[in-house]
What we know:
The protein is of the alpha/beta class. Helix 21 (604-610) links the parallel strand 23 (592-598) and strand 24 (615-618). Helix 10 (311-318) crosses helix 11 and helix 11 (320-337) runs antiparallel to helix 12.
Amino acid sequence: MTRADGILRLLIVDDSLSDADAVVNVLRSAGHAVRAAREERLEALEQALNNHGWDLLICRDNVPELPPTDIVNLIKRLGKDLPCLVITEDSESEKALFHSGAQDVLLKHDTERLLFAAERELDNLFIRRRGRRNERALRESEKRSRALLESSRDAVAYMHEGMHIYVNHAYLKLFGYEKHEDIDGLPILDLIDSEDHAKFKMVFRQFAEQMDAQPAVVAAQCLKADGVVFDADIEFSHAQVEGENCTQVVVRDRPVLVDEENAQLTQLQHYDVLTGLYNRTRFGDELQQSLNDAAEQNTDSVLCYLLLDDFQLIKEQVGLSASDTIIQTVADLLRNVMGDDETLGRYGDQVFTIILPTADEAVVNQRVETFRRSIADFSSQLGGNVIALSCSIGMTRLSESVASAQTALEYADKACTKAQRAGGNQYVWYEDQIGQPENDDLSGWAERLKKALSQNLFDLHFQPIVGLHGPQQEIYEVLLRLHDGDKTLRADEFIRYAVSLKMMKDIDRWVIHTALRKLTEHRQKHPKTRFFIKLSEQTLEDKEYVDWLSATLSAQQLTGQALVFEISETAAMGNLQETKAIIAQLKTIGCEFGLEHFGSGIDFSHSLSVLDVDYLKINGNFVENMANDSDNQAAIKATIDMAKQAGKRCIAGFVSDAVSLALLWRLGVDYAQVFYIHEPSARLDYSFEDQEL
Length: 693
């Protein structure tokens, strides 16, 4: 849907037919071909948003059942990229309505302002839609290019400075390797017989010295992983990967794939060997197609992420072979209750993923309950053990506002994790699309959080930020925990309640006061240590905060140079004036500032042009699983390049494996938070002096 079709799809929320007609006439008189609908009840509005695509929503502020704030929250919950304009007759209430989340607030008879705001929002919507379409086209193009490489009978690799950075399936098979990780970062000389090293290096050196050189070929003896030697012709040509110069290598050994091998390869490419369901790659393609349909045809759907509860314990009870039998059984159980138009895949060891072709929450809940019950009703006896199964299921809407298949999977995975932490054997929607917590939840959390502040039930954990290419520093990020009975909760499990209760200012001050006392003590032996501390939106609005911080620093005999404050990019841009003001004030006392989740915004290059920050922390969604996702690698590379051009230092969080760390080092990131080297801890015990990554 773009503006190119010439039709303005307008949704009006108004209980007055004549007033709604007046709005339509204003837009039509300006030359718009308006196709409009009017709603005044919540249920009807939700149905209209679900069943049709819209370009603009205009609402009155006095419809009893539908205040503007509820309309904006509904749009967000349904994942719609739909600008909302509010019309009011009361100039006194105009200012208050600015906090409703709508794109603009207009007085009823100001038709010129209405036209101006409508044109602006339609232009912005068109740009966002075109940007998403271009991103999808780019991903599809890159996927086709990679698919061509993977399906090529030629063994193809890409090298940078003599090291492998990409190999296709034929290359792995030719040299006898099983996984890409087995060969990533391996020097190509390790695959050449030592007798031909000199000849190979001479040809390669001559080729590399001339960037405009024609492809060069060298005949050499190559080594398989098991040491077997074979003759091959090796062709070099210049290429670029992610904007960097590299060398394409094609190794030819006259392999011939017969039809049977082709059929087997196709089966392996699309289907899970154990269950016969779609495998991870093929399901990802189906998921991306569902997102494309949501964007182009307004046909929203839902992704379900189903994880078997306590499967590791079951595997230890029954053994590997019997656990495979259980996985096959679960696949059959799900297959038996699947609808004809639903898509089922096995995404991981005990993870199954499902696409439901509807976004009606009542229907989705009914279908998901069917999946849950089909597994919960199963029991069997294996190896003398009675096996009872249950599962946790996370759901997320696949709408036009979801950036990619990987983002949708992350949302559904987070919802699934929440279901697990609540005891398992249940399903949960991705909470960012649900809205604010219920009042009952808030009242209970208000007591718990007040108790935590008064009785020091909060605790701080610390994670080192280690240098890769940036100047060596001794920096820890400060992370908040809550002791709640027998459990210790991470910040993401309770912060949203604190935000809704307007308690973040008090919590931020507790964190800073406690962290500075800890830092003063630690600096007696490690005087260069600094802390990264998060700031909430509510603290940004606290005009007394900087004075309070200055006094607190003085009391601990510290200066602002000991601290780097960070706030999420979306929060910073949503409170731009407050953020700019507090950055300026913090810098006057020596503090530095960082943007967290950088890359989350629609136009994140704008963040750099308007905010005077020192550090950019890459959006964790890009870093997680980056080793298996070329789109994420490209996004990280673009962010690093942008940071370098702007003179900022870049930090990558959520680094959970050695392959990702190696990729980040090669991409040039300055710092990393490496979970597999040092998880968050209550102790400041990381040895920066002995750091070797």
